[in-house]
Amino acid sequence: MDLVPALQEPLQQPLKSVLGPATAKVMAEHLGLHSVGDLLHHYPRRYEERGQLTHLADLPMDEHVTVVAMVADARLHTFASAKAPRGKGQRLEVTITDGSGRLQLVFFGNGVHKPHKELLPGTRAMFAGKVSVFNRRLQLAHPAYELLRGDTDETVETWAGALIPIYPATAKLESWKIGKAIQTVLPTAQEAVDPLPSTLCEGRGLVPLPEALLKIHRPHTKADIEDARARLKWDEAFVLQVALARRRHADAQLPAIARKPKPDGLLTAFDDRLPFILTEGQQKVSKEIFDDLATEHPMHRLLQGEVGSGKTMVALRAMLATVDAGGQAAMLAPTEVLAQQHHRSIVEMMGELAEGGMLGGSEHATKVVLLTGSMGMAGRRQAMLDLATGEAGIVIGTHALIEDKVQFHDLGLVVVDEQHRFGVEQRDALRGKGKQPPHLLVMTATPIPRTVAMTVFGDLETSVLDQLPAGRSPIASHVVPAADKPHFLARAWERVREEVGNGHQAYVVCPRIGDEDDDPKKSGKKKSPEDEAEKRPPLAVLEVADQLAKGPLQGLSVEVLHGRMHPDDKDAVMRRFAAGDTDVLVATTVIEVGVNVPNATAMVIMDADRFGVSQLHQLRGRVGRGSAAGLCLLVTEMPEASAARQRLNSVASTLDGFELSRIDLEQRREGDVLGQAQSGARSSLRVLAVIEDEEVIAEAREEAAAVVAADPELTGLPGLRTALDALLDEEREQYLEKG
């Protein structure tokens, strides 16, 4: 992160004699390590103590592991095989132990001679390889190993500390080889320039950076590791928060037009016709948004709300306030189905207030237009004309809104629905359509833990809607283990029939459409049940709909909805379902966001293990939207002990989206929160864990804001500037720019 000239040296040239070109190549290709500084920041994943070894009993299957253990016994067997028909084949079986469990190592053929001489009972060594199962026992076949004898200067030096660092490694480069390379470059750590202001380090009792690098790679005690990690976490949190604070500071310098609603304008007329009272949460969040809109700097706000908490109502009132103040508002939706649905529900909510320029329209009315890629030419032309003249105060659309041809009269507010589905470039393009930067409101129904919001959306202020509107019903969720208990699945279809019998409707969700070509190459090998469930193609809408209509749901009206249908057909299907003409809708995840049919009470999600936690939570939010209770059945063929089943159990056990998002993050082992998907760069977070280090992130955010307020250009902190440049390589810089 803090790469000064010595640390910027490429690994291949200065270290040719030490690393060799082959090692440097593997480091660059497989670990993304290109310079001395990169290598110094490749921290150990964990540490082994000589006396207290890895728990062999807890080894993960099919993963590349490094273990430190002692040889218990070694036996050489001879056997006959095709290659060695006269019983000359050799197999060496070595059993290693760590006190918690035993593990079998196996070597074959000519590969047995060296380990047979070296791996004698009582020998300690580090072993690295891929864990597999043979005859129901865990084993490592042909592992690489490094003896821990300490009988030459080199090994005494290398393993001097009592704590052995285990580095994130690959099959091509073992942990101890990485360790040796790091020992070679460790002296240059003295030249690392500190990115943290000295007052901050002193005030928080953090060790200097060179000392932290030394302690994380060569700790003598556990306290050394703690000191180093505490310091390096601060580096990561602080540099990232400074980047975001500078972004916020730059935004605050931009001019925007203040948009204050008229006292007796469109917004008042709309509020007067509402048949219900806004929840306390909606009123509080609306006030935060209106305060932002009234300033002469662009609002940048993230509106988080549980599925069905009334975000659309809050966003609509902000749009009406903008129209009141003479501007236009645009709402960007991720799919055509959603854009059409938003348009329909907003026009319904507004009534005659949406009939601007028409007979029967109210005096305060404006025009609400829809703009999507599949509209006919005449409709598109009219919508674009209404936007250019200012006739239309509100436009709802998909990314078709971003096209160069679309001109606004005076764009004042951009509302982005379901931010995680939009590339930053798209939001940026829409923001560029205002004469001055428009205000920005980003909505998401995927609850984000507070620290993640501070880290991912650190340049946005956050508002949270956590109350559900009155009249919402609870949703019961259950896992249906179709493979273990087939009668549970039969019962699921009976439940759907019961819901329809009571005058309600149901969704059945499948991961796939079913008109793709399936993989013709089927392997003939026998697979485990978990493999079977994994390898079988995911269930498809078209097949499932057909089977249900002819089988368990015979006699009910079953329709399909998926992304490859013609938009008019999709719209027609949704209208029939919303009107209650269809009993069961078999769909892909096109129904995941925004679809609102209060009479739909049951949802069956097929192959639920193929969906992510937040996606399942989103889908489930489509039922229980009326006065009748909702039911969500998660169907899976995964075995009970599998991680996939545990994930589904957590979804079934809570309706709290924030709790689920924490579970989701912990299970996914946070990727690069700076948007690795957008930049393709290597993860910038190495020791900072977004969930666990909540306090560090919150404190770093405060410190960063103070530093940037006092010195926006960071002229007095050259080390911090260098660290920022390394973090924000060009792609990341653009990613933040466009956030």
The major β-sheet equals: 7 strands, parallel
Q: Based on Cα principal axes, name the global outline.
A: globular
Total count of strands? 21
Q: In percent, how helical is the residue content?
A: 25-40%
Task: Describe this structure as you would to a colleague.
The chain is of the alpha/beta class and 739 residues long. The protein is 40% helix and 18% strand. The chain has 27 helices and 21 strands. A seven-stranded parallel sheet has the order 11-12-10-13-14-9-15, with helices on both faces. A six-stranded parallel sheet has the order 16-21-20-17-19-18, sandwiched between helices. The radius of gyration is 30 Å and the shape is globular. It starts with a helix and ends with a helix. The model is unreliable at 1-5, 152-161, 517-534, 669-683 and 733-739 (pLDDT under 50).
Layout of helices and strands, plus pairs?
Blueprint: H1 5-8, H2 16-31, H3 36-40, E1 46-49, E2 64-79, E3 89-97, E4 102-108, H4 113-118, E5 124-134, E6 137-141, E7 144-147, H5 153-158, E8 163-166, H6 175-185, H7 198-204, H8 209-217, H9 222-253, H10 266-273, H11 280-293, E9 300-305, H12 311-324, E10 328-332, H13 336-350, E11 367-371, H14 377-389, E12 392-397, E13 411-417, H15 424-431, E14 439-444, H16 450-456, E15 461-465, E16 475-481, H17 486-501, E17 505-509, H18 529-535, H19 541-550, E18 558-561, H20 567-579, E19 584-587, E20 600-605, H21 613-620, E21 630-636, H22 643-653, H23 657-668, H24 676-679, H25 694-710, H26 718-727, H27 730-738
Parallel strand pairs: 4-6, 9-14, 9-15, 10-12, 10-13, 11-12, 13-14, 16-21, 17-19, 17-20, 18-19, 20-21
Antiparallel strand pairs: 1-8, 2-3, 2-5, 3-4, 5-6, 5-7
